[in-house]
Write a structure and sequence with these properties.
single chain; 45 residues; mainly alpha; rod-shaped; Entericidin
């Protein structure tokens, strides 16, 4: 039973870390997209 609890805690920690990583990648991609849009607008004017 103890091993099962340890595995559950480890799985929960990994799941939380993965969610934070995916959210971070999404924010980075959004920032990169905004930078490209700004550069395109500056090039157009």
């Amino acid at each position: 039973m103890r091993k099962l609890m340890v595995l559950a805690v480890i799985a929960a920690a990994l799941t939380t870390a993965a969610c934070n990583t995916v959210a971070g990648v999404g924010r980075d991609a959004q920032a990169a997209g905004s930078a490209v849009e700004d550069a395109a607008r500056d090039g157009k004017n």
